[in-house]
Amino acid sequence: MFVVLTTQRSGSTYLVRALNSHPDITCYGELFISRETHRHVGGDRRFFHYLDESYTRRLLHPFRRRHDIDAFLREMLVARGAGRVAGFKLMYDQLEWHLRAWITDNPVSIIHLVRGNCFSSLLSREVARHSGVAHTSTGVDIRPFSIDIRRFLPMLEDISTNIRNYRVMLEKFPSVCEVTYERFFADPEAESARILSFLGVDPHVSLICDLKKISPSCPEKIIANYEELISALRQRGHAHLLEQD
Fold first, then answer.
1. Per the structure, how many domains does the chain have?
2. Which residue range(s) make up the domain with 209?
3. pLDDT tens track for 184-223
4. Is the pLDDT of residue 244 over 60?
5. What HEC string does the chain produce?
């Protein structure tokens, strides 16, 4: 069993789809997305369906979350005849203590997917928010927009802090493979083989995914206040993040 632990706009949807192209792997999406988030952006409803199948289960869930998580994941990853290796995507903000306990108490491998360039990650969130398109296989036309710099900079620092904190936390777990967005897309064949070897499946299978990046390689073409943003980044000591992936 494995989890892909990551944060938004780090290439996780691409990686999940690519992993699912391997005949021995089943990788689900965000099984533990919150109901509130689902109402706004949609997502996987399997855990909600599991809880809603039984009135008693849903009623008692706040008092036995660990039990429900164990039973649900046992059904999803083992009993349903998933691939020889099965896992799911887990966002940083979904890793509550019940799931940490499940990972600790079970033979779970962790793929820690990181987008090292936090600027690119946050820019991708802004592009998705303004375009209304999170993922595409055909490309998308993006109209120029302005970024709220006062909101952007603290968010940028939060992303960087979260990555550092989770790297430290994951040192306590025995089976962790860190994968960076930049390295994965620079050398997908080598990185795919490394990930597949980590999961214990045939590393020679070519992984396939047809998704395309929605953020342009030249952000100055879509950010109306790009020069102002760059100046603010440099003043806050983030000039190194301007190297695009």
1. 1
2. 2-242
3. 999 999 999 999 999 999 999 999 998 887 776 678 888 8
4. no
5. CEEEEECCCCCHHHHHHHHHCCCCEEEEEECCCCHHHHHHHCCCCHHHHHHHCCHHHHHHHHHCHHHHHHHHHHHHHHHCCCCCEEEEEEEHHHCCHHHHHHHHHCCCEEEEEECCCHHHHHHHHHHHHHHCCCCECCCCCCCCECCCHHHHHHHHHHHHHHHHHHHHHHCCCCCEEEEEHHHHHHCHHHHHHHHHHHHCCCCCCCCCCCCECCCCCCHHHCECCHHHHHHHHHHCCCHHHHCCC
